Amino acid sequence: xxxxxxxxxxxxxxxxxxxxxxxxxxxxxxxxxxxxxxxxxxxxxxxxxxxxxxxxxxxxxxxxxxxxxxxxxxxxxxxxxxxxxxxxxxxxxxxxxxxxxxxxxxxxxxxxxxxxxxxxxxxxxxxxxxxxxxxxxxxxxxxxxxxxxxxxxxxxxxxxxxxxxxxxxxxxxxxxxxxxxxxxxxxxxxxxxxxxxxxxxxxxxxxxxxxxxxxxxxxxxxxxxxxxxxxxxxxxxxxxxxxxxxxxxxxxxxxxxxxxxxxxxxxxxxxxxxxxxxxxxxxxxxxxxxxxxxxxxxxxxxxxxxxxxxxxxxxxxxxxxxxxxxxxxxxxxxxx
Length: 336
Known about the structure:
Helix 5 (138-148) runs parallel beside helix 10, helix 9 packs antiparallel against helix 10 (264-291) and helix 9 packs across helix 11 (296-318). The strands form three sheets. Strands 1, 2, 3, 4, 5, 6, 7, 11, 13, 14 and 15 form an eleven-stranded mixed beta sheet that branches. This protein has a two-stranded antiparallel sheet with strand order 8-12. A two-stranded antiparallel sheet has the order 9-10. It is α/β, with parallel strands linked by helices. The longest helix has 28 residues, at 264-291. Strand 1, helix 1 (15-27) and strand 2 form a beta-alpha-beta unit. It has helices at 15-27, 47-54, 69-77, 98-108, 138-148, 185-191, 203-213, 232-238, 244-261, 264-291, 296-318, and strands spanning 5-11, 34-41, 59-63, 84-88, 92-94, 112-120, 126-127, 130-131, 153-154, 159-160, 171-173, 175-176, 180-184, 217-228, 333-334.
């Protein structure tokens, strides 16, 4: 059977969300021929058994260990047979028409290698779905600073921390989240698979950067809307999604990205800038709390930026720390 799209869904201990995710694909596939591939990252909650019982049409891959996000997705991508691959995490759910809208857009734009939808919470609240590359340039440094302080940008100067401005505008962007992204198979053929050194986070940034260097465009498409419950698996790994361990993982991923595409000097400069910026912002926010102690949002941002400053500083003294694993068992069990 010739498929329109191969859907790769990575799961780690999110059985109920995975069931809802696959159900949404059944109900809102838009009449497309979808090849459904689920990679279970050594879950202990019965996820694999549920897929076998409830979704016999799914190709199920069971990894003996948690190999991380990039390597897990790669296990599914390697099995994909369609001209388009939809990376569709277990904590997402399709809304009517969304997948078909992305495919029709891609078919009309052969220069576009990747499309990301508008990600929303279950109540419809917009989640930022696209970003700028993290590179050591003045404009990007300013945008990072604005993001850290919680600003939406300086519109009068054309600086917006979200490339789509408010989430409602179609835009060519630097990169989109692979929580849900439709990717032309030719992109993988051209630039390779996801970087397996990146155990959690940064693999979408890296893939889009490599695709851009190869001449592919990435587009944020708000006409397609996908529900994203958000980081349910990562909470199990890190506990506090905004805590110190998650910040250290981000710092390690940034170091890897900078060294891979630029140099060690770029990495030190970028992490140093982020460390000092985060520290300054945390101190400013803590000063504000002396006068407005009940401001919960300010307190949370002060804590997050403090963790970020500690993570970036410690990573600079730790040397190069590649944050992922270097070998993935390609004999992971293919249940069907």
